[in-house]
Amino acid sequence: MRSAKIVGVGSYAPPRILTNEDLEKMVDTSNEWIIARTGIRERHIADDKTAASDLALEAARRALEDAKVNSEELDLIIVATVTPDFVFPATACLIQDRLGAKKAAAFDLEAACSGFIYGLSIARGFIASGEYDTVLVIASEVLSKITDWEDRTTCILFGDGAGAAVLKPAEEGQGILSSYLRADGGNWDLLRIPAGGSRILATHDSIDKRLHYMKMEGNKVFKIAVQSMQEAALEGMKRAGVKAEELSLLITHQANARIINAVAKRLGLPSEKVYINLDRYGNTSAASIPLALDEAVKKGRIKKGDLIILVAFGGGFTWASCVMRW
Ligand code: ACO
Question: Residue 1: what pLDDT?
């Protein structure tokens, strides 16, 4: 079977920044509480007219440029998002058109914060089977649109952004060495948007009850996130046949600095091998890993030949890991 590797990355976040001080004027919170409990200092917020495809398009263009790949070469476009432009058509189809990716198939993928790794794994499978040669995986979120700006327990956490990666075939032992995907719907109700789907339709009543905004029982999610990400990392390393000390960098879903540090500690990784940028972006769900990955590559924190691991956890619950030789 062919291996698959990332040949280009790109990311984009909308220019407007919302600081913790701005939030102090909106809800009963403080800069100190937010930093101590989450590590977040500021986040990027899209304007009213911007949707997931707008952020995705910019990230995709940057990834294609980085990969030196023409959009007409793309065989498949996958967009991971919980904030698509529409229930349907898929955001990936809008991107296919806007990029002019004439021969590409396109679909959306919903695995919450684990969406980017789910997307990488699917891309890897298509490339390994020989069905496709060039796959674009994008994760794009405008969480600000599904955030209840009156709920201090959630509104301080989230931000908007997008990241993308172009994948192509690679020699064995290069690129993605393992991917590991898991899910457990038993706790689906700890993190969700109650209304707007086919269970509870969008009605005047659902809007009055603010049911079209994200709800999270953060404390319960926290504990499961640490445990699940540790498990995903260990299984991913086992499948790839690598040990923690061989890793150059750990990039996890950027939800909370305390979660990231707890996972790193359990894996025995020192802080210099852990990438954190949530202080500037907050939690951007599926987009958080490719945003961090792109930044880490551009800053020279990841070099050719480095062994890295991506680890995610999100609503569903879903969790996942991906080990790759850069
Ligand atoms: N400002 C000030 N006080 C606050 C705020 C706020 N913004 N929010 C909550 N508090 C209060 C609470 O009311 C509570 O007060 P009480 O003790 O008087 O009841 C106290 O602070 C502690 O609240 P906790 O919820 O226990 O705080 P915790 O330390 O758990 O931090 C947080 C909350 C940051 C949400 C954390 O639980 C977390 O990060 N959870 C996991 C998030 C995550 O990983 N999500 C998964 C991915 S996201 C996705 O899929 C989209």
Answer: 80
End-to-end CA distance of the chain: 19
Mean pLDDT of the chain: 97
- Give the nearest ligand 1 atom to 155 CA: 7
State which of 150, 219, 284 you would mutate to test the pocket of ligand 1, scoring each by most atoms of that ligand within 8 A of its C-beta. 219
Residue nearest to atom 12 of ligand 1 (CA): 153
Q: Is the pLDDT of residue 107 over 90?
A: yes
Cβ(324)–Cβ(276) under 8 Å?
no
- The pLDDT tens digits for 17-68 are 999 999 999 999 999 999 999 999 999 999 999 999 999 999 999 999 999 9
How many Å lie between the centroid of ligand 1 and the Cα of residue 218? 5
Mutation test residue for ligand 1: of 153, 155, 229, 318, the one with most atoms within 8 Å of CB: 153
pTM score of the predicted model = 0.97
- Sole residue written with tokens 């305390």: 258
SS3 295: helix
Give the fold, CATH level 3, of 177-325: Peroxisomal Thiolase; Chain A, domain 1 (3.40.47)
3-173 and 177-325 share one fold? yes
Tell me the C-alpha distance between 173 and 180, whole Å.
17
Q: Which pair of structure tokens corresponds to residue 195?
A: 């209304």
Rounded distance from Cα 37 to ligand 1 centre (Å): 7
Residues with catalytic annotation?
113, 253, 283
**Domain-by-domain residue ranges, the chain?**
3-173, 177-325
Q: Per the CATH hierarchy, to which homologous superfamily does domain 3-173 belong?
A: Thiolase/Chalcone synthase (3.40.47.10)
